[in-house]
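S.,

Sequence below, as promised.
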Amino acid sequence: MDIRVGDVLVMKKPHPCGSNQLNVLRIGMDFRLQCQGCGHEFMSPRLKIEKRVKKIIRDQETITP
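The prediction came back faster than expected:
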């Protein structure tokens, strides 16, 4: 899956604050993500995130995996 720094990930399940959109801050074995709703930053394994992505929003493009 082609995920880049700066992309917005729309997830299948929402973050506890209610927002389901996350900004990608860092990529590698783990992703560093920031919730667009509450601003909380967290790290999560790549495999876990790739399974839960519904849509990728990238500078006027929308990519559905």
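The chain has one domain: 8-57.

Coffee later?
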